[in-house]
Design goal:
Order of helices and strands: EHHHHEHHHHEEHEEHHHHEEHEEHH
Distance between the termini: 74 Å
CATH class of the largest domain: Alpha Beta
Radius of gyration: 36 Å
CATH superfamily of the largest domain: Homing endonucleases
Number of domains: 4
Shape: rod-shaped
CATH architecture of the largest domain: Roll
CATH topology of the largest domain: Endonuclease I-creI
Number of helices: 16
Largest sheet: 4 strands, antiparallel
Number of strands: 10
Strand content: 15-25%
Length: 339
């Protein structure tokens, strides 16, 4: 039903003016408008806007001049209610058309899920993914090393950033490792030109990782270190070191000149700007008998080629790129170009 919106005055003032001018009672006006008294009283209090049909009845009966109005069509209240609902939604969750709004809405939904997970499951809502909780092991230690090396952890997501050009195979290894450990599927995302992200979105995963000793947020600011449960076991230390070097280190080639002769050699390094983590890695290298040096600028180096051979025999690598560079050096005796 079309309604009337008064543009220059309030609806209540208009009705009071008519009552006074014509000496009528409120029930008389309700009868002229052909509505019951309760409806008319709601109009008189500006609770609702009067119908256009009743407004026309007043005009015809009392010969009143037409004030400035706007006629609202039948769907006006639906649009108005939708607008009010949208405004309330934005007040609660922010503008869901923006990343910030979607994030805020998602956080609210997660909170409600935690309060009543069974209700959400009954309505078909997909809540936090169930995961497996593996025992402390070599495989779990390697996963921790990978995260400490090139991972970033938030409350809802783990992201491991790799080189898209040379570490595609290694990204697949990480997906399989986390699937085996946590029964969790990950996603591969190519970002910019040379960055490949392995992403695991799971609140339960990030909560469990923090219980294992990892920290949410900036690793450098937190000055993270290897958890004690790894440092207490030799096999776990080896696996964690492999994860660290596979992500934040690797094989490199260096040159030096002696008596005018240029020599090319292989090196092994680990790079990180969390000094406690750097010291952990250096201690593990020494623990296994690898002559490593540590520098204040965030590097641990192993220069001895025989020690590097022993590293690949004892610790190994799951990063195909590192293995290729290692094999090429010792097979050819010459250093390939950096790739």
């Amino acid at each position: 039903m079309p309604r009337v919106k008064f543009l220059k005055t309030r609806q209540s003032n208009f009705l009071k003016k008519i009552k006074k001018r014509y000496g009528l009672d409120w029930p008389d006006l309700a009868e002229i408008c052909r509505v019951d008294k309760r409806t008319f009283f709601d109009w008189r209090r500006d609770k609702y806007q009067m119908s256009y049909t009743s407004f026309q009845a007043l005009q015809k009966k009392l010969k009143i001049s037409t004030p400035k109005i706007k006629v609202l069509q039948d769907d006006w209240n639906v649009k108005s209610a939708g607008r009010l609902g949208a405004l309330r939604r934005m007040e609660l969750y922010g503008n869901i058309g923006t990343p910030e709004g979607r994030s805020r809405g998602g956080l609210t939904t997660r909170m409600k899920y935690r309060m009543n997970p069974q209700l959400f499951k009954e309505t078909g809502f997909i809540g936090p993914k169930d995961i497996s909780y593996p025992p402390k092991s070599e495989a779990l230690s390697e996963a921790v090393g990978i995260i400490l090396g090139d991972g970033s952890l938030t409350r809802y997501q783990l992201k491991i950033s790799l080189n898209n050009k040379v570490e595609k195979e290694y990204s697949k290894f990480i997906l399989k490792l986390f699937k085996r450990l946590f029964n969790l599927e990950g996603d591969l995302m190519v970002r910019e030109k040379n960055t490949r992200d392995v992403v695991f979105s799971s609140v339960k995963l990030t909560e469990h990782l923090t219980k294992l000793g990892l920290k949410i947020g900036n690793k450098i600011r937190h000055q993270v270190s290897i958890p004690d449960w790894i440092l207490e076991d030799t096999s776990r230390m080896a696996a964690c070191l492999r994860g660290l070097v596979d992500t934040d280190g690797g094989v490199y080639y260096h040159n030096h000149v002696t008596k005018g002769i240029r020599y090319r050699h292989i090196g092994l390094c680990f790079t990180n700007h969390s000094f406690p983590l750097l010291k952990n890695a250096h201690s593990i290298f020494l623990h296994f008998g690898f002559p490593a040096s540590i520098r204040q600028d965030g590097h641990v180096f192993v220069y001895n080629s025989l020690a590097i051979k022993k590293y690949f025999e004892r610790i190994g690598t799951h990063n195909k790129h590192h293995r290729i560079r290692f094999d090429n050096y010792f097979k050819s005796g010459e250093v390939p170009k950096w790739s």
